[in-house]
């Protein structure tokens, strides 16, 4: 404003030294000022300035995010989402997002910043948050560098620059995406840079070939068995063992036959006396872990890596000569998990076999879900139920959840059941959430029973609100 | 009167710390000249000062009197004395004069009939109090005027060295002069000093507006009554809520809650709830205060809802602050209509014309879109005119709701920018 700076410099130096001049001030101020002093003039000018403020011009509004929004669920559902983001029953957040997405609901946009922050360090939430953000995902990703993951990975990864000049994470993303679209192209791209990559990167990138694995990859993986790095050799062996019809499988089958024969209703085992170089090349570990002898360990690994098609489930009921049957059972468990064999898993569980280092849950999950309840009921005699069901994917089938809740309803509040209750509270499927246990009194104390009922009720209300 | 048990005494403590401190004082050696009569107990307790504190408890109330400066009620001395008494360590004695006087005064007050709201207990005494205060304020204003004139005469240059201590001293003087409003203005001026290159100009603005209060106070009797009320309010005269409820201008409407701003502070949390009448279009402000860590009173409705009721406005040239008497349950409200940036600034100018000291103003902006503005953000209306958002305010929620589309936003405007309070996502209000 005209004349204002003059007032400020008079005020700074003092009117004794620099008397104030008012001639430069706007006329309106001079008229009203009369014989007023510097402070009177400054007061008038201050209000004059404030009143004369103009809107900003030449601003460029952000471009609008294109697309349509989904309809929003009811206000109660939105309030529950806000409560979870505020720290109440937050572990059900992913379930809310999945359920809302499945029913076609959108997420109120004001909660997206909190969700995007939440998923920043929790990769498993990212696809959910991307779906929730809808048309706003990329728009928000441009606003906050910390939310860059909201950019759809596929769109970015088509750029070969990502592979040739990106950082490790970007290159990994690129390779993973290409592998799912064109497995051969991914393998060739990897083979091209193979000799110059570090061992850690080779191990990491090699593991991505698990997706879309086929016999076309065999030559590359065979050559990786001669890699400088032991970890790379192991990784290649693991992949080859998962490849039906491979030469690797044939080599293992040959080894098995030279150490195990089925004669006269007996499995005769002749444990290896030494570990050949060719065996080590195929990823067999010469060093035995604690609790098992060297030779038994070598044999166990041969069994574990032999194609199941070369073996028979009937062997589970056959007498064993020459080694402890548990060695064979542990090997078959590994093989069943490697090949995801429902038949072998069922047979091993039925025979109450030793599962070695593995949890029986890893076999259990290979069975169809509707068999779980029955299998758990049998296994509970010998195995800790919480450990068994804790390894199963959620949500459980209704039969399993109902069976466990029925049991929990009967056992009072003994602390021994707390872990099973806490697992079940999260794993019970939507149509079991109103199990009779939720209508029984829980008492005022903070027991596992009370927390179980609270969580089941919370989830039940959540689904109700989203329906 | 029989002795009380310890639990009953501790049950009177305002908090755990007081209870503990009281127990520490429940020892005979801490007290002198203690005694008990049928109706009261009393004693002298040596504190940190030279004079011992005089503590007395009337047992029927119970009511407490203590000369200590504590704001706890009852204070630790009263609790300590009671505990000492429950232990049987306070002997019967004749009431000393200071106890008798206090008890008699209480008895006399209790005999008086209940007052109606707004009615003054003792008109003559109240008038005397008011006139004493007027004198103190006047002498405070005279002192401030002299100080301001001196500053301008010798210059604000070099002020950044001495400003803080000098302005703080001055603010304290204004509190003594019972002009807390002016004290606050002086503190705000102190905060400007040395901040950024433009601080001398900012300081001159602040000081000139304080000068304006002082000059207006000089001519209080010549001002229109409503403006005189505004000046009084700015100086820091408070008006009893009971009087506002009875005498204040009343406007009935369905009041849309435009939003609320909460300013937490170390000592006092302030909440401003801004309202707009659905039919009258009148704006109103509900102020609430709470000591740090204490809850504020509940909101009459959520932002974006109507609360049907009557506002009783505090007097002034720009009547904004009001008391709400709710007459019906809150209701959902549609998305409000709003202003362009140009109209919004115009409404603020009108408020400044009525009250030149007005700092905050509620705005509803319609069809605005977010835009970058320097390091910060602004909201741009359909004409391309923009208002800046308060620097440093977290805009991400607002941006996520808008996604670049035009939206309606309510906010609190001050010179630094708009502080958004509520925005509307379609018909759905979103609290920011």
TrEMBL record, chain A:
<dbReference type="InterPro" id="IPR043746">
    <property type="entry name" value="DUF5691"/>
</dbReference>
<protein>
    <submittedName>
        <fullName>Uncharacterized protein</fullName>
    </submittedName>
</protein>
<dbReference type="Pfam" id="PF18944">
    <property type="entry name" value="DUF5691"/>
</dbReference>
UniProtKB/TrEMBL annotation, chain B:
<dbReference type="GO" id="GO:0008270">
    <property type="term" value="F:zinc ion binding"/>
</dbReference>
<feature type="region of interest" description="Disordered">
    <location>
        <begin position="109"/>
        <end position="136"/>
    </location>
</feature>
<keyword id="KW-0863">Zinc-finger</keyword>
<dbReference type="InterPro" id="IPR007527">
    <property type="entry name" value="Znf_SWIM"/>
</dbReference>
<feature type="domain" description="SWIM-type">
    <location>
        <begin position="53"/>
        <end position="86"/>
    </location>
</feature>
<feature type="compositionally biased region" description="Basic and acidic residues">
    <location>
        <begin position="109"/>
        <end position="119"/>
    </location>
</feature>
<protein>
    <submittedName>
        <fullName>SWIM zinc finger protein</fullName>
    </submittedName>
</protein>
<dbReference type="Pfam" id="PF04434">
    <property type="entry name" value="SWIM"/>
</dbReference>
<keyword id="KW-0862">Zinc</keyword>
<keyword id="KW-0479">Metal-binding</keyword>
